[in-house]
Every structure is written in structure tokens, then in C-alpha cells.
Design a protein that fits this description.
single chain; Rossmann fold; 2 domains; 5-stranded parallel β-sheet; 4-stranded antiparallel β-sheet; 9 helices; 40% helix
Length: 240
């Protein structure tokens, strides 16, 4: 079995220094690279400075500033970052909202370190590794670089803005580079609370291609897999 912690970066956000120490100790013990933050605002600044993590563990109530749901709302305007909620809130409607809108898993406090590690590993196995180094600006090749927190790409070093949906779509495809992502999966991730027809996805793929492809009618990055979905071509993967 693949070592789940070999290079995974985990961002832990909680207003309790004690909880941060406990979670950091448990994840470090399992081999993960862990960064902690006492607020959603600080966590977003860390993402802007150092790039996205592979997964975030997020508390819900973090007074007096941004709460966990607000952090998720912001980070999901430019990515599909996997979230595990770790919180004392044990109300059914909150758990349902979190899982439907934001989180891959939901853990209530107090928690067991071993269970936390196992749940993080399970989420990472499900979502997979990110094919590219998660830097503030991610280099795909000499032509294309992607700044997810800034919601923009650089084409030959020239910035081109992305809408939140375009950025999130690109994140989903790049996270699965070299593999076909089904249209139904993408629709569910982009619009989790809506019933959306595939035509809407085709419109956004078309728009994204117009922004990042040298020749949009002959795409080199985002290719269609007829009757299935789309793939972001990872040339190192194809040559392996």
C-alpha cells in the first residue's frame, strides 16, 4: 500500500492552541507535513503565501472572526480543497450542512488521535494526490502557470483572470491530471446543491479552454473523453 503521508501537507485551523498541538502531534507522528493556524483569516493568508495544502482540518466556531464555514466558502471559490471538519458542534443540521456543502468528513471533539489520522488517510486515498507541486504559483510547463489563490493563470508570464467556477474546475482537473474525470463527478463538485445539466459544464469547459489553450479548438491541456468526461493532460504521466 502506498505511504499516505510521504509528501502530504495538512493545514489545521482551530482557535484553540491546545487542539492545534494535539492534532499536529498526531499527524506529525503519522509522517504528515503539518501547518497550523488560529483563524480562518490567517489560514487564507498562509495559502496565499505558501500555496494550497493537500487537505485542511477546520474548526467551525472560531470567534471573533471568520468561522469554519466562511473559510470553506472562500477557499472553494478557487479550489476544491478537501476539508475535514473537527469541531465540538454536534448538531444534526450542522453536520448535514457541512457534509453536503463543504466537508469530506466530520469529526466531533473530543477525538481520538488514531481515528483522526485514519480518517485523514481515508480522505486522501479517495481524492488522490495532486499531480503538481502545490506552490503559490504552480508551474504546469513553460507556457502555463496557475495561481489558484489569485484566481488567475499566467500564459507566457502574462496574467489572465479566472472566475471562481473556472478556477475550481481547473483545480479538479489538475488534481486528477492524466486521468479522466467524469462529468457527473465534476457537476457534483462544482454545484453540490443544484441539479445541473451537463450542458452547463460544457459551457465552462469551453470558456476555460478559451483562456488557457493556445489553440482552443485543438486543446492540449483539457481534452474531452466522449461520453465520459474530461481530462487534464499530464505529459509526464503519459510518457511514464
Amino acid at each position: 500500500m502506498k505511504d499516505m503521508s510521504y509528501s502530504y501537507r495538512i493545514l489545521v485551523i482551530d482557535d484553540s492552541p491546545l487542539i492545534l498541538r494535539m492534532v499536529e502531534r498526531a499527524l506529525h507522528g503519522a509522517g504528515f507535513d503539518v501547518t497550523t493556524s488560529l483563524s480562518g483569516e490567517d489560514a487564507l493568508e498562509q495559502i496565499r503565501r505558501f500555496g494550497l495544502p493537500h487537505l485542511a482540518i477546520v474548526d467551525i466556531n472560531m470567534p471573533p472572526g471568520m468561522d469554519g464555514f466562511e473559510f470553506c466558502d472562500v477557499v472553494h471559490t478557487f479550489s476544491d480543497l478537501p476539508i475535514v471538519m473537527l469541531t465540538a458542534v454536534n448538531e444534526e443540521h450542522t453536520i448535514i450542512q457541512a457534509i453536503n456543502q463543504y466537508a469530506e468528513d466530520y469529526i466531533t471533539k473530543p477525538f481520538h488521535a488514531g481515528e483522526l489520522v485514519a480518517r485523514v488517510q481515508r480522505v486522501l486515498r479517495r481524492v488522490g494526490d495532486f499531480a503538481y507541486t502545490l506552490d503559490p504559483v504552480m508551474k504546469v510547463d513553460s507556457y502555463l502557470q496557475v495561481d489558484f489563490p489569485g484566481k488567475q493563470v499566467y500564459l507566457d508570464e502574462k496574467p489572465v483572470p479566472l472566475t471562481p467556477t473556472e478556477a475550481k474546475l481547473l483545480y479538479i482537473l489538475m488534481r486528477n491530471a492524466g486521468r479522466t474525470v467524469t462529468a457527473s463527478f465534476i457537476l457534483q463538485r462544482l454545484w453540490p446543491l443544484e441539479v445541473v445539466q451537463e450542458e452547463r459544464l460544457r459551457v465552462y469547459v469551453h470558456r476555460l479552454r478559451r483562456k488557457i489553450e493556445k489553440t482552443p479548438d485543438n486543446p492540449q491541456y483539457i481534452v474531452s473523453k466522449r461520453g465520459v468526461g474530461y481530462a487534464f493532460l499530464d505529459y509526464s504521466f503519459l510518457e511514464a
